[in-house]
């Protein structure tokens, strides 16, 4: 694949920025083209703090036509484009460090064409996840993809990273809720994928190529999202677990008796963090791990079944203590023990790993990785949490006070090879839901074969022949 990136201006100066801004202003509203330092730094990054931010300009298109014109301009000028949504990513996928134009969809944020029969709604790319959730609730429906950054992440970004979150065990990933989408490819062509059909066996479903593509194939400019019936009367259990292996026994015991909407876990180190920030412990007993289970109370029998399984798990020694929510507010407080962990870790500049295996392998997988990291960094605090019901673990290593960020990240990266060798041995993924971006790019071989990568590069060449779409992300261009 030709590397247009080698032709990009990597150190854009003020004169170049002003020249490009003037050209962009010919087809995008001039006040929606920004080259001031605050905009460049604020929109040229995501939540990763590992990379220099150095975009050429930030643009805020308002129409699909403007996006098409932008792509054609960038192609002619050999300038790379980096899509920017809510910038909540953790893989460096939205980082602009090589003089790219950042494409922000903040002003393409409307919903339209709600169809109550099909239970679909058309979303522009900048629609906030919570905005869609709130709209669904107003229609007495439900959009089930949910995670901590729902208040700022955007729909196109969710699709581009195939976001998962806390309800995957019941509702699946973002790709499962996309009825159709419109995309502007690297040539500026607008393509309409699937046209919202439920059944459509006419060749390749190109829609799914863009779920998880991280903006490397084209820019998502519209998505038709499916909605569903809301869950009824959700209850939450938090259980104290003495050892990791018991968690899978608990999952099996509950799933054998009742459907679950969530099955999450977190470590005692995580519980200490959230309780230090004002939350109450779920119960007095301290245990190495905690399981959070959510289920629907569709009848009195559901509550009785949950208590029966809970008591059975206690009898087996899999659970030491536990609590069940008695109100909606108590359920929210119990969820906060798990959902607030990211925010509570943030002041410690954590080094994050987002990994997965098949659900049944989680206990051994976690123990192997925990042993390697604990041995390498006995003085570092490890905080585990994750969507353990679908095999997804989040490992967070907290930076010690007084240690420089560069030294800390260097130490953490030194053990990556060992961690990812374990992932490879378990035939797992080095990125369960955060994406590859820049952070995991150089480790993709631990999950994907050379043949896989070659095929992906070939697909990119078809959609983006000049390599202007987020080059250098996922794999080396």
From TrEMBL:
Its EC number is 1.1.99.39. SUPFAM superfamilies: FAD-binding/transporter-associated domain-like (SSF56176), FAD-linked oxidases, C-terminal domain (SSF55103). Keywords: FAD, Flavoprotein, Metal-binding, Oxidoreductase, Zinc. InterPro entries: FAD-bd_oxidored_4_C, FAD-bd_PCMH, FAD-bd_PCMH-like_sf, FAD-bd_PCMH_sub2, FAD-linked_Oxase-like_C, FAD-oxidored/transferase_4, Oxid_FAD_bind_N, Vanillyl_alc_oxidase_C-sub2. The keyword tRNA processing does not apply. Its cofactor is FAD. The keyword Zinc applies. Residues 51-230 form the FAD-binding PCMH-type domain. GO terms for biological process: respiratory electron transport chain. Coiled coil: none annotated. Homodimer. Belongs to the FAD-binding oxidoreductase/transferase type 4 family. This is D-2-hydroxyglutarate dehydrogenase.
């Amino acid at each position: 694949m030709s590397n247009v990136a080698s032709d990009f201006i990597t150190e854009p100066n003020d004169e170049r920025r002003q020249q490009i801004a003037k050209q962009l202003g010919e087809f995008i509203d001039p006040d929606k083209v920004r080259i001031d330092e605050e905009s460049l730094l604020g929109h040229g990054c995501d939540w990763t703090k590992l990379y220099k931010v150095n975009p050429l300009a930030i643009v805020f298109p308002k129409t699909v036509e403007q996006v098409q014109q932008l792509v054609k301009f960038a192609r002619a000028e050999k300038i790379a484009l980096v899509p920017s949504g809510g910038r909540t990513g953790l893989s460096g996928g939205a980082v602009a460090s090589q003089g790219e134009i950042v494409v922000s969809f903040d002003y393409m944020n409307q919903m339209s064409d709600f169809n109550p029969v099909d239970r679909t709604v058309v979303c522009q790319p900048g629609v906030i996840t919570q905005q869609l959730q709130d709209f669904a609730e107003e229609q007495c429906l439900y959009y089930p993809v949910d995670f901590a950054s729902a208040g700022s992440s955007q729909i196109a970004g969710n699709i581009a990273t195939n976001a998962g979150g806390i309800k995957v065990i019941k509702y699946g990933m973002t790709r499962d809720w996309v009825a159709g989408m419109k995309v502007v490819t690297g040539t500026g062509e607008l393509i309409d994928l699937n046209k919202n059909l439920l059944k459509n066996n006419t060749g390749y479903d190109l829609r799914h190529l863009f779920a998880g593509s991280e903006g490397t194939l084209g820019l998502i400019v519209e998505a038709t999202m499916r909605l569903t019936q809301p869950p009824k009367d959700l209850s939450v259990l938090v259980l104290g677990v003495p050892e990791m292996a018991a968690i899978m026994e608990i999952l099996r015991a509950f799933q054998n008796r009742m459907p679950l909407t969530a099955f999450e876990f977190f470590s005692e180190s995580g519980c200490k963090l959230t309780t230090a920030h004002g939350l109450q412990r779920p119960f007095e007993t301290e245990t190495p791990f905690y399981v959070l289970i959510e289920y629907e109370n569709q009848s009195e029998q559901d509550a009785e079944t949950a208590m029966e399984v809970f008591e059975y798990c206690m009898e087996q020694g899999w659970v030491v203590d536990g609590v069940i929510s008695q109100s909606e507010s108590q359920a929210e407080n119990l969820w906060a023990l798990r959902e607030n962990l990211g925010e509570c870790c943030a002041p410690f500049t954590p080094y994050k790993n987002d990994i997965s295996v098949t659900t049944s392998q989680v206990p051994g997988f976690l123990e192997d990785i925990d042993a390697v990291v604990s041995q390498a960094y006995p003085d570092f605090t490890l905080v585990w949490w994750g969507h353990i019901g679908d095999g997804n673990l989040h490992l967070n290593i907290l930076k010690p006070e007084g240690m420089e960020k560069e030294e800390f990240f260097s130490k953490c990266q030194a053990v990556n090879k060992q961690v990812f060798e374990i992932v490879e041995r378990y035939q797992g993924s080095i990125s369960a839901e955060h994406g590859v971006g820049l952070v995991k790019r150089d480790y993709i071989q631990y999950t994907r074969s050379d043949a896989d990568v070659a095929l992906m590069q070939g697909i990119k060449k078809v959609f983006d022949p000049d390599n202007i779409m987020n080059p250098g992300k996922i794999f080396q261009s």
